[in-house]
Amino acid sequence: MQEYISQNELKTIENLEFFAAQVVEGFITGLHKSPYHGFSVEFAEHRLYNRGESTRHIDWKLFARTDKLFVKRYEEETNLRCQLVIDQSSSMHFPVQKNLSAELPNKIGFSVLASAALMNLFKRQRDAVGLSIFSEELQVHTAAKTSSSHHKRLLWELESIAKPFDVNAKKTTHVVKALHEVAERVHQRSLVILFSDFLDNPETSEDIFSALQHLKYNKHEVIIFHVVDRSQELDLDFESRLHQFIDLETGEELKVNPAELQDAYRERMHAYEKDLKLRCGQYKIDFVPVDCSKGFEPVLLSYLLKRKKLY
Question: Is 262 part of a structural domain of the chain?
Fold first, then answer.
């Protein structure tokens, strides 16, 4: 796979705008084709002119070169409206890092890097993009716009959450409340892209899907990036000895040998993920499992290429 930026050159997110521009370089424009009808058209290809049809779209320059009549065919482009929604609760800072790395980002790092790259892609395609950031409540919400000053503000907001973890800032997750508020505040039909580990109380899963249905009821297309460190958070893959685990959201501590409860833990976590995926399928929500330990670009590129084939 082509490298769009040297992984060794970006050890911290000091210039997110530069990074976003570099990672999008080489992306195929129109990767996010949407089923929504837009307001502009773009040249796609030529075809031979058929006698009797309008001459309005004949390419006369091509006729001068080839002495043949060709008609320009156009492809309807989408003036997309996209709302990026990022969970910045304390659990999203796992694995805890001193510096956020593009090579192996933690969960919040993946979400910020992916959002910045998508934002730059939308900007190049003249699509409107907005940003929502939440933990216990919706802390940032901007309407979707296309201006350069708006994009700079969004990048600043992303940089503000791309910080090393503060042990004193314990932020819990309230996905349900945030999604309902986003659904109420995004008035025009949009593509809503959510980044979250969904490490909320499993008993609230019905409420989570009620909130997602609220977005679907308002005619939004919804994509979920389920961001986790798979080996540690879903498989509890730790050395067989006593470990001290600390809940990043509450500070609660537990000393345990993970090998003693690994099987039951895996069964429960994988069942929860499977339920999320199945329910998303039922509601026609695109569910994208993300293992942040695998790096950033391969996941995003793979998904964007998939989207290109879908539309």
Answer: yes
